[in-house]
Amino acid sequence: MLSHAKSNLAAAIFKLVAGGLLALSALSFAQAAVQPPIRLVVPFPPGGSTDIASRIIQPKLAALLKRDVVIENKPGAATQIASQYVQRSKPDGNTLLVSFDSHSLNPIVRPLPYDTFKDFRGITFALRFPLVVGVSKHVEANTLQEFVAAAKADPEKYSYASTGLGSLNHLAPEELKRMAGIELLHVPFAGGGQAMQSLVGNITHAAFLSYAAFKPQIEAGNIKPLAVTGATRIADLPDIPTVKESGYPDFEAYSWIGIFAPAGTPDDVANTLTDAFQKALNDKEVKDQLANLGFEVMATDGPTVDHYAVEQYQRWNDFVEESGLSLTK
Predict the structure, then answer these.
(1) pLDDT cut 70: percent of the chain above it
(2) φ, ψ dihedrals at 204, nearest 5°
């Protein structure tokens, strides 16, 4: 009788222990399944091209990765704040830099607290896009030729806004200035949204910005597009010629967006992210939204964007050295 009672007690204890282990196992599995969000770190305030493109890609990327994807705007110091934040992050694929062309251009302009070409690993060359040469509605010019003529007639009158010293929308206007033989005062801002608002407010006269940033104000009649810096016209602006067509056949400039992870990110993690970005960017709905804003989907692999970053550095570094352009004001 006593032996039978002991047997029943042992069986009950076994069930309790087994049940507890199963519960702990289930809890551990659930905790492992809860992953932190992937953070897309944008180096500009909301309203610029990198921010706009990131928010278009975000939902599809999250669906493909089956994870939350959040956008963090970390503007300042000519994109250095965002870049250093990502560079210092754990290389686990959870923190990614949505780079602008300034990723390649910053090393030309200033000493950096990181090595642009060694401290990051490319995930994809996501997008490229021409800039639109836009002017305030208050400027009495409807074509690039008319704007150049106005600037020649009054060399100290006109200014242009940019997203900072050494940004593409600083260097590209400087290149055109030299080709056209005109003077324009450079007025740098912290991001594309602020630069655009300076035109709307008639604080500056011109800017070379993405169509994505300009579009609402063009449609509202506050900004007049004069030309496009790419090789071809933008589909949404079929009547706006390229800078090449406007009398400067050697002029062409594209801004670009790349995705970078911290150096040391494992191959399998990087490859998974590359695959997800490529699929998200080539999704028809996403691609159509981007195309309507003047973005051209590239969706390359990681090594391609690493190579392109170096190539763009070399191109614009040569321009700065040959032109003697000052990057201190």
Answers:
(1) 90
(2) -120, 170
